[in-house]
Amino acid sequence: MTDPRDNDRGTASFLREMGALKRGKRTGWWIVGVKDPETIAEHSWRTAVIGSVLAMMEGADPGRVALLCTFHDSQETRVGDIPWVGRRYLKAADNREVTADQLADAHPAVAAGIAAAVDEYERGETLEAQVAHDADRLECMIQGLEYLEQGYANAQEWVDSTRAKLKTASAVALGDASQGLSSTEWQRTFLHP
Questions:
Q1: More confident residue, 192 or 115
Q2: Structure pTM?
Q3: Does domain 4-191 have CATH number 3.20.20.10?
């Protein structure tokens, strides 16, 4: 019989590993010249927020979508953030295999729950998974718009190509609405009531 403390240690180890996402940079932005791109954790956090909002708009389960978004890039602690341009040259690891390895010593309920979320995201068959994928794309598009504002003109191609991949009506609508906004738009109502 396994000592429950071993599962606690394995789960705590996984939580510590997830801290590496706060230090890991999103490498695709280096291709367009961004010197200090967002971290994987920053991307995942806003993806979860966007996913929750899209789920509300699309009639999906916001909590489930947020969960899928939270763990969609958690494997990057072990395989790194490989930009789309690089993936064609690599035989990418299956994110489900990486997740299984990450959680091998974790509490069984934690391992099963996260594995199910990653599997659902990877399959992309449920409405929640489809919304989560659109949240990932929309976050990338919005980040690209912010980098454009900062003077990284090469981000435009990423904005355009990511916008073209949006599938749900709500993501398309929010992507279109985002294009005319500045990153400080939200504060205008306070500055100019």
A1: 115
A2: 0.92
A3: no
